[in-house]
Amino acid sequence: YWIMPIAKFVEKYGLDHFAESINATSEITKRHTGEYCIRPFIRKYPQKTLKVMEKWSHDRNVHLRRLSSEGLRPRLPWAEKLKQFVDNPQPVLDILDNLKDDDSRFVQKSVANNLNDILKDNYEIGIKTIKTWSKGATPNRKWIIKHALRNQVKKGNPEAQKILDKLI
Hints:
With 168 residues, the protein is an all-alpha fold.
């Protein structure tokens, strides 16, 4: 947790220094998490930051891959909503698609939670993505789908239950 103040510093004072702050966020997340300090950069520099996060989604470092999902969550707990992704989750889905078969449970859980967030605000888009991902799903992707649909199943959503029944 000793890195936390550094992340807060980057979040608060690094906004006018994109390259240095993105590099710092990359190093911070390898040791703690950059999911909060990346959000102001997403707001101020959406295209530049998405390009970096797309690159991170292919990185061999599990923490960077996770950040490429977790940092983009529209409804990240204890963080301000990313309204642009509530309004249009497609940029997030483009990155999640790179992670849908990730071997790391750490990354899988983030992807599933991200999809769960998307389902809350954009049900049709989220469920369409899950249905597409269900076709030929790997065991890792099946885990993501099951975890992403957990709240829909708890609500008694028959469409979500039908998708899960087909996965088994």
